[in-house]
Write a structure and sequence with these properties.
This protein is mainly α and about 180 residues long. Helix content is about 65%, strand content about 0%. The protein has helices at about 25-40, 45-55, 60-75, 80-85, 95-110, 110-125, 130-140, 145-160, 165-180. α5 runs parallel beside α7, α7 (about 130-140) packs antiparallel against α8 and α8 (about 145-160) runs antiparallel to α9.
Length: about 180
Amino acid sequence: NANFVVSPEEIIPHPVSIFKSFPLSNNYLFFYTVASLYDKVKNYEKAEIHFKKAYKLKPDFKEGLMEYAEFLLRIKRLDRTLELVEDIKDDESLRFDYYLIKGRALQEMEKYSEAIDNFLEGNKIYNSDIRLLNGLGYCFYKIGQNERALNTLKASLRLNSAQEEVKKLIEKIEGKINRSDMFS
């Protein structure tokens, strides 16, 4: 653990620098750190360059690979996300993350049935992740399975009641269900 200070000042007179060195064999950690910092300041081009360097230096570093995959998902590089996430498929400790990231990428690609399959597999491993439940509920909604969508989204709300977008979607789905009941 260490403290890290970011200053809004362009020039800091006499900055204090305290750091631990690390062997060059671990320089991939430096690139992951820099990539993460560029991501935080929304400089996605430089973030991607550094993520690529880090990944190339140590493709079997699973934690970095997952961070890279999440980054690619956020910037909508979905095909690359799907390629990359396959590298963690066989790691039992990351199985949930595999299904979650893959499901979210497929959802963004509007491949809802495939996304549902992945979300359901992930849900078997851990059934209390609101990202997974929200994705699953949204996909059920998109393929017309409104009752399943409602049940899933309400489960997500029970975990975190401060999700305004989820509440709006639930209202929309309930409105559709009520309208269809009127015509049956």
